[in-house]
Amino acid sequence: MTALLRTVLAALTAALVSVVAPSPAPASASVAASAACETDPATPKRQLRAMWISSVANIDWPSRTGLSVSAQQAEFRAWLDLAVRKRINAVIVQVRPTADAFWPSPHEPWSQWLTGTQGRDPGYDPLAFMVNEAHARNLEFHAWFNPYRIANHDDPSRLVSTHPARRNPGWRFAYGGKLYYNPGIPEVRAFIENAIMDAVSRYDVDGAHLDDYFYPYPVSGQTIPDSATYDRYGAGFDTIGDWRRDNVNLLVRELDQRIHAAKPHVSFGISPFGIWRNAGTDPLGSRTSGLQSYDAIYADSREWVKQGWVDYISPQIYWHIGFSTAAYEVLTAWWSNVVRDTGVRLVVGQAAYRAGASGQDAAWQDPAELSDHLHDNRRHPEVVGDVFFSAKDVRADRIGAFTRVVDAHYTRPALLPARGSGSAPGAPSITSAARASDGVRLAWTGSGTAYAVYRVDGARSSADPCFFADARNLVTTTRQTTFTDTTAGGSAYTYYVSALNRTHQEGSPSAGRVVEAGGGTFSVVVDNAGSGFTASANWGTSAFSGQLHGTDYRFADPVRASDPAWFRAAVPSDGNYRVEVWYPSDAGYNSATPYIVATSGGNRTVVVDQRSGGGQWRALGTYTLAAGTYDVVGVSRWTSATGYVIADAVRITRA
């Protein structure tokens, strides 16, 4: 992405922010009254933030077959804990990867990806376990089903003897070295729907999700062997392509009807290939020139949206900004236009697997590429969130790309987008709020499925609706009626709690509850010339700038290696601390110097432009630090920007 385009995107984003703030309103005022408040696009009130957890071929979970029950469960909890740390609020988990099941299904065998043997009982109910664990963390759980794939091989004898595809050989075909259910057979469609509905009906899932595999992706020199099926069932269709698309449309439309008839609150979504059709083929298509899912895999994703057969669409826009074949910014604009005024929500599928990966285009070696996608999203109000493929790539965080996403877009929690027209719950009542050794402990009563906790600085006698207009004051969401705010410092605060129903309609906030100031003060400065500073021999020493702190400062050339200079400090107790840095600035210094903060939840990276703003304390933010003496703040050399990176001084102050 060029510097000019990035500048234009930033300007467009800023122009979207509303600027008229109303007068303060009583605490009973509706949260919806905050529509005219000034909001920050970096802290949206509502946003779906999800990651795909893939089970096929043990991509994400379980990490391999044959793990013990306790090991499988520990791994899954770790994925959910990762989601919480990254302020993700939903997981999309593959529970039917290859015509098999991650629950005791009466229709299909246990998945081989659990035990290594198809049909073998894993010793517990994974789907029940996963849903319960997700909800305990107030994460939405979307059950992900692959509709037609039977196996990643073409040998039916390798399927368990009771497999429906073995007992009904006429239901399947082989193509491209894999086995598929034939979408054109009505009995097959009914069977697939029944298999999916068993999970939707029996488990407390929040969503049902299909991926992009409908008819098989084309294989050179091969033809899908369904001509006999077309001869039998294709009357009334001019072409076999039209018939195939109708077969998929029937599955989508009928699933939509059946899911909402069984559980109206469950959200139905599909993640199709990112291109419907190219404008060169169809004037309704996008300005792209790639594979067309309408023609290649018979997925008429635009029709699903226009007919309202899905609650959300999550196109896999797995290409970088400016890509000549299929540019990210072209496709987000196209899909935004498709969903506009339909009631279908647009959630972009993001290629976290490309960021920093070997062999990917140069654009994907830029740590900012993935974050820039979300900046582009801000131009389109139709985009209500993102899903990242896949969990292991979120965890890998190659070149710090996902850290960039979190630092730029996920600094605060977010409520999930509301769906439907359900009545919002009444306002909760905060029954207690008191300081404790681990933070501020809150308790309340209410009738919500979940709750949002807000914290406003200072003792407030009344609530301004603008307190709740975006997520700047949102501390957490939870399904519990108690919460300990471990991020609270020693200042006075006013807390509010609102209740949400199952489809995320939010009621009015509670009356505010004031917590008075308390706690001791602590502040320490670590200079590069002091004993708490360490750096390799690659870091030089200079007193060139008059903006230095103390007698000198350290500098180093940027490289593709971290080689950090560290500032060590004695943190007196677990808690929240404001971290500030001092550096001399110069036009020739680095525009993207990475500062590393060793928080109790893992390292956080903040990028600072050292070309300006020097000669003073500059805040990196407030972080939860663990007690002890250790390297708290580092200055990394790993940046693609040019110019020296500077390490001079750090100040750490109890918040």
UniProtKB/TrEMBL annotation:
SUPFAM superfamilies: (Trans)glycosidases (SSF51445). GO terms for biological process: carbohydrate metabolic process. Residues 47-366 form the Glycosyl hydrolase-like domain. Keywords: Signal. Pfam families: GHL10, Golvesin_C. InterPro entries: CBD-like_Golvesin-Xly, Divisome_Glycosyl_Hydrolase, GH, GHL10, Ig-like_fold. It comes from the Bacteria. Residues 1-29 form the signal peptide. Residues 524-654 form the Golvesin/Xly CBD-like domain. This is Uncharacterized protein. The lineage of its organism: Bacteria, Bacillati, Actinomycetota, Actinomycetes, Streptosporangiales.
